[in-house]
Amino acid sequence: MKARRAKAAAAKKASTAQSAPLAELRNIGKTFESGVTALRDVSFPIRRGEFLSLLGASGCGKTSLLRIIAGLLEPDTGSVHWQSGRRPRETGFVFQEPALMPWADISTNVRLPLRLLGIDGQTAELRVRESLASVGLEKFSSAYPHELSGGMKMRASLARALIVKPKLLLMDEPFAALDEISRFKLNDELLALWQQLDCTVVFVTHSVFEAAYLSTRTLVMSQRPGTIAEEISFLPATGRFDPQYRTSASFAARARKLSEALERAQ
Fold first, then answer.
1. What distance in Å separates the CA atoms of residue 215 and residue 212, rounded to the nearest whole number?
2. Fold of domain 2-86+169-265
3. Which terminal CB of the chain, N or C, has fewer other CB atoms within 10 Å?
């Protein structure tokens, strides 16, 4: 029964992602003042409900592209067209580093987006508790960042992004600095949260294995100036929460396909 429900949910997500674009990037280009051209003529849709990974070598413009989607960086050419006319107000961003305020406890750090949105009081308290519980940090609300491990800091950063109940979650190599055990566990938890929230995720990574495990669609980027070299789509793997999945032939085939595409893009 559980397997059938998972398969039905996967099929529904795949169908939704194919039919409902959230936004479309059109001919994005970016050259910095140093003269370095980071991106050139990048175009693709962001489909509602999908888990989209941007895969490429370091320096290929992945982070610049994510910041343009987030509105933190302006493109020199091209534009981002949102289906609703603007980026969703409920957008979460998880950076490469946790970027927590060292002088504030974890509860205060997680609450920050709500304060910026003008949400306070009892509603904010409830949302903080819910968000911390969703990443397993409910017992650490009064702890300070220096008291947490690297994985726990990243959980706190994720909780801060989730507190707005995002319709769009943007993630910039959030687990790259973690040990493999922590990374695997957070990958699993991220997938569970993605399904629970029914949100759209755009995830930057240079890991073939991470993209193969997480993504419903992967855009493989060329070296700088970054362009979209290939697009590879996968149906969500219903066996991803099986401890044996990462050593399965199915997962190996996904990773191999992405690895070959990445090699061709260099």
1. 6
2. Rossmann fold (3.40.50)
3. N
